[in-house]
């Protein structure tokens, strides 16, 4: 795997981890300043803004796809036309979303629902929420453009600085002007505007955009045609991702949602490794012809298995002690088996996601979207049966089956010709199955120490196989060593 790709993977991983820690560190301060009720409303606001992401219509990913191709060909004029076409389209749809937000707030007041002081504060935030929609829409285009140019260092630096501003500016405003919802939300929107402006300035510089252009109708149609299928597929997958918790709550009650959601939210943090790789590979796969894209996808799959499997092994064995310390014995006993099973699902989803982005990058978003649409009713039926028959464990195993089937189907559609990679993946999967088979029974029969000891043995086997099977992992290790020991030389590529 190319050294530049590995470097970008590391940059993207750090760019995903740092904002997460920044956000976690400020949550107690927000709750202390605002109180539980106001903080809950703030959290709901950002969820609402996320729903308005559908107004992006996939323009950010379409922009990334097309700009990566324009950068590869060196067509500066096309880059500028693509950027401005996506910018104007997202600005217009964002303004339409603003109108919807304002009308919703007006209807809320007219119907007489605003009767308490907190509800009046909520209504006062509506104009700021309306402003947030176009800011977010335009910022997504900026993100797509800068990632399409593969300038991940600039993007993640801006994102990290933006997260600092977004988390700290509202806290400062609350201290100075009072801890009310309008003050906090207004400061947060101002932070989003500052971060968006920084990202926009970086995009104009990187793409060498020197003047404002009107939208190109032909490019708008192409972007919309591509992005529409992507956003439909993402929406369908997102709905399927939440269906397990919804059905558990409907069939078994809210208590069991807690037992399921706690380990699920924890183990899905492993997906940051996958996300870093996928964010790096998408523009490169978009710019390459089919043969080159196949090679990069195979290398990426081998590298992902190598770096993801050992942490999954650690997760399976260490999840029990961690849950007991984190949420207590009562929740841990119910949640632990679910969490261990879902780690297998996370591993499979990493495989299928790589095949999905290969299809999308090579101009076939319809194929991946059809898979999501076709599997959705099957997943719903399987979850209904599994939950009724086996409770939350049944739901977890259905998610594993969904991930495995999607991986097989998407890999077949993407035509990833990688027999050697399949053998490597089966060996990694075998180690995960062994971990799953040993962790619970050993801890129950012989104690945590024995279980963790077995985990160390399996981890050593997993790490050894990862090192032997992945040239990309060896290259990354040499690159890191070269940064620590300046005289150690890292190779340019590993094939």
Share in helix: over 70%
Overall structural class, as computed from helix and strand content, comes to: mainly alpha
Strand content: under 5%
- Counting H and I runs of at least 4 residues, what is the number of helices? 16
Mean pLDDT over the full residue set: 84
Distance from first to last alpha carbon: 6 Å
Secondary-structure element order, as H and E?
HHHHHHHHHHHHHHHH
Query: What's the main sheet like?
Result: none
Uncertain residue segments: none
Shape field: globular
Features:
mainly alpha; 495 residues; membrane; globular; transmembrane; transmembrane helix; 2 domains
What do these coordinates show?
The radius of gyration is 24 Å and the shape is globular. The chain is mainly alpha-helical and 495 residues long. The chain folds into 2 domains: 1-215, no CATH class; 225-488, no CATH class. The chain has helices spanning 3-51, 59-73, 76-110, 117-124, 126-148, 152-177, 181-206, 217-252, 254-267, 271-287, 290-327, 329-361, 365-414, 419-446, 448-469, 471-484. It is a multi-pass membrane protein. It is found in: Cell membrane. It holds the Pfam family Polysacc_synt_3.
């Amino acid at each position: 795997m190319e050294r530049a790709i590995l470097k970008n993977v590391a940059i993207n991983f750090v760019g995903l981890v740092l904002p997460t820690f920044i956000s976690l560190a400020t949550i107690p301060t927000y709750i202390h300043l605002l109180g539980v009720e106001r903080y809950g409303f703030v959290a709901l606001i950002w969820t609402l803004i996320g729903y308005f992401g559908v107004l992006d219509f996939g323009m950010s990913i379409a922009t990334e796809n097309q700009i990566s191709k324009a950068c590869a060909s060196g067509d500066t004029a096309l880059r500028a036309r693509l950027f401005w076409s996506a910018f104007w389209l997202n600005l217009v749809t964002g303004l339409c979303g603003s109108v919807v937000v304002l009308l919703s707030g007006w209807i809320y007041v007219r119907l007489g629902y605003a009767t308490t002081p907190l509800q009046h504060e909520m209504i006062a935030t509506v104009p700021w929420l309306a402003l947030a929609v176009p800011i977010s829409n335009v910022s997504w285009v900026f993100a797509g453009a800068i990632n399409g140019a593969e300038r991940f260092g600039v993007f993640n630096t801006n994102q990290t600085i933006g997260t600092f501003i977004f988390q700290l500016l509202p806290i400062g405003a609350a201290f100075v002007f009072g801890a009310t919802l309008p003050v906090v939300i207004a400061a947060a929107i101002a932070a989003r505007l500052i971060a968006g402006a920084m990202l926009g300035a970086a995009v104009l510089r990187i793409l060498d955009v020197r003047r404002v252009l009107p939208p190109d109708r032909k490019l708008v149609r192409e972007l919309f045609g591509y992005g529409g299928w992507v956003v439909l597929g993402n929406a369908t997958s997102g709905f399927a991702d939440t269906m397990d918790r919804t059905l558990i709550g409907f069939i078994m009650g809210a208590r069991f949602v807690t037992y399921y959601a706690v380990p699920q939210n924890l183990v899905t943090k492993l997906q940051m490794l996958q996300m870093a790789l996928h964010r790096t590979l998408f523009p490169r796969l978009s710019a390459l012809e089919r043969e080159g894209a196949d090679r990069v996808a195979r290398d990426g799959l081998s590298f992902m298995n190598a770096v993801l499997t050992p942490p999954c092994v650690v997760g399976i064995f260490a999840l029990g002690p961690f849950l007991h310390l984190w949420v207590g014995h009562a929740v841990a006993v119910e949640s632990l088996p679910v969490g261990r099973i879902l780690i297998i699902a996370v591993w499979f989803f990493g495989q299928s996601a790589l095949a999905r982005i290969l299809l999308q990058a090579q101009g076939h978003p319809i194929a991946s979207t059809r898979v999501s649409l076709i599997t959705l009713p099957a997943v719903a039926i399987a979850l209904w049966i599994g939950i009724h028959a086996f409770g939350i464990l049944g739901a977890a195993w259905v998610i594993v089956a969904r991930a495995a089937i999607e991986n097989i189907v998407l890999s077949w559609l993407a035509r990833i010709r990688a027999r050697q990679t399949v053998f490597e993946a089966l060996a990694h999967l075998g180690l995960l199955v062994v971990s799953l088979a040993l962790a619970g029974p050993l801890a129950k029969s012989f104690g945590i120490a024995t279980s963790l000891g077995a985990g160390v043995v399996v981890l050593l086997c997993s790490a050894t196989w990862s090192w032997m099977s992945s040239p990309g992992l060896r290259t990354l290790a040499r690159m890191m060593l070269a940064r620590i020991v300046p005289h150690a030389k890292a190779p340019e590529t590993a094939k």
